[in-house]
Amino acid sequence: MLYVALFLVAAWAGAQNALAGGGSFLILPTLMLTGMDARAANITSCVALFPAQVATGWTGRALAGGVAGLPLRALFVISVIGGAIGAAILLLTPSGFFAKLVPWLVLFATSVFVWGSFFRKPGDQSGHIGPVAAAAAQFAISIYGGYFGGGIGFLMVAALTLAGEKVRAASATKNVLAGVMNAAAVLIFLFSPDLHWQQALVTSAGATLGGLFGAKLLHRLDEKLLRIAVACIGAALTVGLFFAGA
Length: 246
What we know:
mainly alpha
């Protein structure tokens, strides 16, 4: 029954990742319930979610694109480099430092997204960040993604929308970039003794099916409803993360 629950949670998380991000926060505690510690759960989650990220990104690739003068190819390269650096940091430093930053990162991302989606006047470009800031934001998020990964989708949606991309396109773009930034980390983690293959395979199957469903749903959801859903998910993640760290 525990593996059935893991599959269902992974499917839900895969769909949530495709639409807005934050699905790994559902998977991590579920993996820990199967008996592994936080570090092993983090590594197993990263490997397990990779096929879902690739499948989701491929399904919605038509909507993905560059932003703020940066072509998608540039974001691709930035994400690969940042993801590799993040994976190296995970192996060399304790996890506590980044773990303490997570609630604040998600709080900041939620605030940025809500301001950009609901309070900035339509057509107002004054609040948009330029290509250098957009590249720096993606690089920082990629390092964090290679290290821990929780909330990277939501952080990318916030950064991409601040750079001027529409929510639906930003969601599709972050789906492509999420798989890219985790590719280097997965290659490293495949050889880690902390990787639990049984749980990884169950999680991967559920997350891939859920991610494909979520990516298809991106083409049908109303833009305003998607904005509201992303804001609500961000608020819930922020509250939950602060309580978890208390």
